[in-house]
């Protein structure tokens, strides 16, 4: 902003100086060069402030520089005549360098104007009251499309291009849209539909296939989903329309978390369940209403299997950290009250027939076979 004010002030001051006194030709050329340089730098800073591509910003600055300098030394006639002489014949038409420069300058000017209009309209919509974030995003995208269409047809009219000349290519353009741009157009329409029916909104926590995270942005082509690992998945809008999507915060942001816990069979079950409930209630992200609950799920091989059912209202903050916090608190409570958390183990019981036991005892004593006849010495 400071650079824009600085260069703009210099250009304004030089313009006043040039027009305030009838300078000689050399002095006018020197002052014109300075004015052109200041104006070009002002245009460059302005274009970069609109986040325009670097090449377009420099092109606009060069056009401003040439225009102001040529005006200071006598007008555009010399430059335009020279550019018009450089060209070639394409069929029945002549393509000159002046026409190419005119098209480029017009395109850059319209592009910059469209970007500026989109920023102004987007800021106005963002500051508007009475709309939620999803409706504002929808209006911004629709306004952006309308501005681009208006700029396109305005440029066609400004350049004097006859639209009837495109009639020959209308069939080919239709085929290109039907085959080559089918997915792109489908994703664009799907994105608008998603914003209109509000089935998926920025900030929602969704599961699509193996992707789990919160919706960061709904773009023209894809939806940005950020996982808990910080990875950003770009899911095409059309996939969200055709595939099954699990939205954790569609109508209600409350999500129930299941935390499995096993205790030893010898433990005090009532005390253990009380401690589980206390650990859940002490966790800062667990809601008091709906109230957490503890269920005895099953009789396991080596433990009494329980489930702590806790509710949270911010699933975008993650689920695993809630489980970890509750289990850490529960571990401390179990240690204080002597509740044992069992580990996998097996108890083996060996049984044998009565005859095998007697034979084993006789073998240990060194006696002969039971019931057998031995010859006396």
Automatic annotation (TrEMBL):
GO cellular component, one term: plasma membrane
Keywords from the UniProt entry: Cell membrane, Membrane, Transmembrane, Transmembrane helix
Highest taxon listed in the record's lineage: Bacteria
Domain (Mechanosensitive ion channel MscS): residue spans on this chain: 184-249
Gene Ontology MF terms in the entry: mechanosensitive monoatomic ion channel activity
Membrane topology note: Multi-pass membrane protein
Family according to the record: Belongs to the MscS (TC 1.A.23) family.
Descriptive protein name: Mechanosensitive ion channel
Source organism (scientific name): Sphingomonas suaedae
